[in-house]
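WARN retry 2 of 3 for item q-0093 after timeout on previous attempt; input resubmitted unchanged.
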Amino acid sequence: MNKIAQKFGNSLQTFVHDEEGAQIIEYALIVAVVSLVLIVAIKTALTGSGGAFTQWLEKVKACLGVTGGTGTCT
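OK item q-0093 returned
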């Protein structure tokens, strides 16, 4: 029983001192933050006032004759 506890203790100490896992978590957090910034930037660019996606929707509305379409059908 003592050997099992000693092996477990050694494994636990090795796990605590292993820094490779911490680096992976740091990289994952960096990727997550960069992804969120990109998502917000792209969403703003596409759907913000005068954004490309908003302009395209206005053209489609104008071509279909939907009320509220302010673009021109070209």
